[in-house]
Amino acid sequence: MPKNTRPQYFNVPQIRFEGPRSTNPLAFRHYDPSESIDGVTLKNRMRFSIAYWHSFRGVGGDPFGPGTIRRPWEEGRDAISVAKRRMDAAFEFFVKVEAPFWCFHDRDIAPEGATLAETNRNLDSLVAHAKALQKATGVRLLWGTANLFSNRRYMCGAATNPDAHVFAYAAAQVKKALEVTQELGGDGYTFWGGREGYETLLNTDMKREQEHLARFLHMAVAYARSIGFKGQFYIEPKPKEPTKHQYDFDVASGIAFLRTFGLEKHLKFNIETNHATLAGHSFQHEIEVAASQGLLGSVDANAGDTLLGWDTDQFNTDVKETTLAMVSILRAGGLGKGGFNFDAKLRRPSIDPEDLFYAHIGGMDTFALAFKIARRIIADGELGGFVADRYSSYDSGFGRDIEKGRVGFRDLEKLVLSKLGEPVPRSGRQEYLENLINRYVDGP
Ligand code: XLS
Ligand code: NI
Ligand code: NI
To answer: Which domains does the chain have, with CATH numbers?
Structure first.
């Protein structure tokens, strides 16, 4: 990456890889961006991305009080020049932590104006600024998206709003967001449900709302293709929050939704760890469900808190959780045009600019280490071999006939009565396998 010649906003040096023994808190221990593994550098393999909304718009506010985080570049009266300075700071950060990608919502980067036309003009001026910064630094856009949930007009949803006027407004907003994503060379575009869900069925026509959401997605895909956008579309499931019941509850219900409305050819899943756990699933479970249908797309790399029932969006430092997820990701052939986007935020008392560095260094190191461990687990073959052996009765004979649909209940009854008799139970060896995983996680 070319040297950043702009004014420096962070009093932190370029973060370097120093190896697992390093005790420098401002160094990578596992993420060596230039390390080539299986012919691909870690930088190109992990495709780490910084989420603009959390790291450059989040100020630590919660329902009990306003933000605690104050950044020097936020001072000033002219919203557009503040937005530009903020973006300069953001790109300095991306370069310093060697993140090759970023992600943003339209409204993260530019303020809304009094009319949609004015809002679009504001966005255009920040997109021009972003384009120059991308060119100067080599940082690219992993995916774009639109904020269809903060403004009051979207209080009852965007595509699922009972008022067609709001649907139309959201369509106009997403049209522009797609153009902007295309302009910045984005590799993808994400639809997270936002307020697409409901609080009470007393005032909701659920069937109609779901049909409207599907119609909206078809329109978005058609428009994007018409302007030559070749990126991947993602749907990001979440079971609850902000609405009590979100329509994209989890990957399984998302698959049913996509298939019902003929959208499965156009969208894959962007899976967020914290959304998985809020839905009562593990991160790995959601990845497996998507991968089993060839619909694994990208990852919002964060973690929830098992003791709290909301979307805490923390940086993930759990090597075991990420390793298991990574095993499933690698077996599925990786993320393709997707990446690991740190949709994660600092805790409210983590108010210093350095905290942004510690947070991302920890997240990057954890996922890079998980990748290396998962790769060894797969290469050694013991785990995979165990599972293959467990299902081997389906590889030949009547087991194969079952899988191929060559036998029915009559044949199988005959077989059991005449030949097979009582099955011999075999241990599932869960504890043995848990120890096996620990050997990799704790081991050299
Ligand atoms: C919120 C979502 C959101 C999406 C992008 O819970 O995770 O941040 O990733 O709109
Ligand atoms: Ni997310
Ligand atoms: Ni989240």
So the answer is: 16-380 (3.20.20.150), 396-442 (no CATH)
